[in-house]
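Sequence, please.
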């Protein structure tokens, strides 16, 4: 894509975006380009396409399974924080005004509430997850 090729041209790694792009391209080559993006689960469960739907009905809040709902939430929030930090640090590197990007992204169709919530704390931390309170708290709970 345009952003990943630009990041390569400027030697600025965007690992999360690169993985997302590879998943997208893999789904296209599998013939799933017109399907909802949730079809990516098929890459990991090629012979059990309906397993996630089956398992969703049997979800348990029993912490003995090793993975709690809180852990899943932390992982998902963590991915969103990484996405915001990665995207906005790249914008910063490219000289794109952070507030302009905030306005564009936060007002776009399908805007992310996590982007809106994480933007200011990450901006104050200069897009560093090491300095962002939410990211540090999540890390401490997961490690």
């Amino acid at each position: 894509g345009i952003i990943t090729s630009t990041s390569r041209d400027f030697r600025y790694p965007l690992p999360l975006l690169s993985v997302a792009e590879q998943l997208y391209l893999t789904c296209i080559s599998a013939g799933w380009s017109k399907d909802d993006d949730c079809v990516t689960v098929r890459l990991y469960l090629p012979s059990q396409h309906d397993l996630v739907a089956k398992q969703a009905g049997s979800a348990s809040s029993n912490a003995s399974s090793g993975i709690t709902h809180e852990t899943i939430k932390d992982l998902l929030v963590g991915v969103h924080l990484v996405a915001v930090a990665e995207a906005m640090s790249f914008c910063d590197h490219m000289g794109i005004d952070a507030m302009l990007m905030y306005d564009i992204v936060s007002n776009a169709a399908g805007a992310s509430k996590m982007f809106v919530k994480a933007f200011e704390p990450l901006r104050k931390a200069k897009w560093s997850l090491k300095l962002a309170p939410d990211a540090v708290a999540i890390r401490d709970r997961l490690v």
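The CA atoms of residues 15 and 86 lie 8 Å apart.
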